[in-house]
Specification:
The chain has two helices and six strands. By secondary structure, the protein is mostly beta strands. It has a domain of 88 residues. Strands 2-3-4-5-6 form a five-stranded mixed beta barrel. The protein is globular and about 45 Å long. The N and C termini lie close together (7 Å).
C-alpha cells in the first residue's frame, strides 16, 4: 500500500527527525543506535518467517518523559513488494527480527539509511499517534 500524497499546503519530511514536528521536547524519531540494537540481540525462535525485508533499517521512537525507546523494523516487504513497518521489535539476530506480536522477519541484503519517510508517516498516523506529534498527514 502506498500513502496518499500530502495536501498542497504540507511539506514532505526531509529526514526521520523531521517527521516529529510537535512535542519535539518529549519525543524523537531516528535510526536506531548500535546500543539499542545490541540490547535486543538474542536467539530468534526457529519457526517460519512472516516475510523477507530488504532495504531495511531499525528506527527508534524515544519518549523522553518515560525514557522508553520503541524500536521498529522498516523496509521493503518482498512478498508484497511494498514498504512495511512492524510493531515493536523485541529480538534481533544477525539476519532476523521478531516483533512484539511474535512475527519473525528475515533481513535480506544490507541495511539502508534512507527509509520510506511517507510510509512511516502514514503508519504513525494509522496507529493514531501521528497527530500528537505533528506527523505530516500522509494516510493510507
Amino acid at each position: 500500500m502506498k500513502p496518499n500524497p500530502l495536501p498542497p499546503d504540507q511539506e514532505a519530511p526531509a529526514s526521520l527527525d523531521d517527521i516529529i514536528r510537535t512535542n519535539r521536547d518529549s519525543t524523537r524519531l531516528y535510526l536506531s543506535k548500535a546500543a539499542e540494537i545490541a540490547a535486543l540481540q538474542g536467539p530468534i525462535p526457529d519457526r517460519p518467517a512472516k516475510g523477507v525485508i530488504t532495504d531495511w533499517c531499525f528506527i527508534t521512537l524515544l519518549v523522553s518523559q518515560t525514557g522508553e525507546a520503541f524500536v521498529y523494523l522498516t523496509g521493503s516487504h518482498q512478498a508484497d513488494q511494498s514498504s512495511c513497518m512492524t510493531s515493536k521489535v523485541t529480538l534481533i539476530s544477525d539476519r532476523a527480527a521478531m516483533t512484539k506480536s511474535g512475527s519473525i522477519y528475515t533481513l535480506a541484503g544490507n541495511p539502508t539509511t534512507t527509509p520510506d519517510l511517507p510510509y512511516i508517516c502514514a503508519t504513525l498516523n494509522l496507529w493514531g499517534i501521528g497527530p500528537r506529534f505533528g506527523v505530516p498527514p500522509y494516510l493510507f
